[in-house]
Amino acid sequence: MNPIKIRLILSMLIFGSIGIFVKWIPLPPTQLAFARGIIGSITLMIAFLFTKQKINWSNVRKNLPFLIGSGCIFGYNWIFLFKAYQHTTIANATLSYYCAPIIVVLLSPLIFKEPLTPLKGICVLSAMVGMICITGIGSASGGDRIIGIVYGLVAASLYAAVMIINKFLKDLSAFESTLFQLVITSVAMMPYVFLSGRLQFAELDISGWALVIVVGIIHTGLAFLLFFPSIQKLRGQTTAILCYIDPVFAIIISFIVLHEKLNALQIVGGLLIIGSAFVSEREKETRLAGR
Q1: Which of 95, 107, 145, 267 lies at a 20 to 30 A Cα distance from 59?
Q2: Which residue range is the domain that position 82 belongs to?
Q3: 153/252 Cα distance (integer angstroms)
Q4: CA distance to 18, 65, 80, 175, 240, per residue, from 12 (Å)
Q5: Rounded distance between C-alpha atoms, residue 21 and residue 151, angstroms
Q6: pTM for the predicted model, two decimal places
């Protein structure tokens, strides 16, 4: 198999397992997201020194407004995703989060003047139906689970904003954009973390710190180093297909490790969401290839 595809698949498996670690770490989402940003930034800086890459500061300055915008949003996207993991199952949180591509589709006609084709319209409606299935509206589902799904949707909206802003980045390597976004993310979260309540890092035992370090180094630094360069080198359609390893693996591992289950209606909803996002991405790739 193509080594680039292998790196992308590995990054998806790493991203898909983060929910397990978040549930095991006894930290508030704000503090965990902050620690993730700090450790991830340090990991990328070390990688920068070892690989002896050069930063084009002129291009960084030209893109600085977009880097600041996406970096500020990125951290709060993590916070709401981690809140979703805490309030509902990993499957529900992950599937809610994967509405982000559909949100981008909805906003593209306004921001990028891209037409909302009939197929994309069907995808949006299918994703909405899928979310209704996931939330179990009309059933005796727990309120806390609904809150978790709402947090997941907020995280998806923030990630959609990051995806849109990143489309305006020009002449930056994947390494440059990722490094600066992570550093900005850490700085942007700092005031909120220190003002939102008592810091609990000192209360972590060795195992807690080990899990936090794994999330920072493996799920952030290493995963980003594998993910972003890979998607720059692969066709969009290939990337779209392989990226759905993330939610599928997240659901499988949550079932194996935490014994979380989806009922039949939620499975249908998950298929509708993932299928809608995939079809909309494939339709875009096909349209661009025809130009």
Answers
A1: 107
A2: 3-100+138-243
A3: 21
A4: 10, 29, 20, 18, 11
A5: 18
A6: 0.86
Q: Per the domain annotation, does 167 fall within a domain?
A: yes
Please tell me what DSSP assigns to residue 101. H
- Structural domain includes residue 34: yes
- What domain count does the chain have? 1
Vertex 30 angle, CA 145 and 23, to 5°:
50
pLDDT truncated to tens, each residue of the chain (291 aa)? 678 888 888 999 999 999 999 999 999 999 999 999 999 999 998 988 887 778 888 888 999 999 999 998 988 999 999 999 998 889 889 888 988 878 887 887 788 777 777 777 787 788 778 777 777 654 445 567 789 889 999 999 999 998 888 888 888 887 888 889 999 999 999 888 888 777 888 888 999 999 999 999 999 999 998 888 887 777 666 777 777 788 888 888 888 898 887 778 878 888 887 777 777 666 555 444 334
As a whole number of angstroms, the distance between CA 200 and CA 31 comes to 8
Alpha-carbon torsion, ordered 249, 252, 254, 259, to 10 deg: 180
Helices (H), 136-235: 143-166, 174-195, 206-216, 223-233
Establish if 262 belongs to a structural domain: no
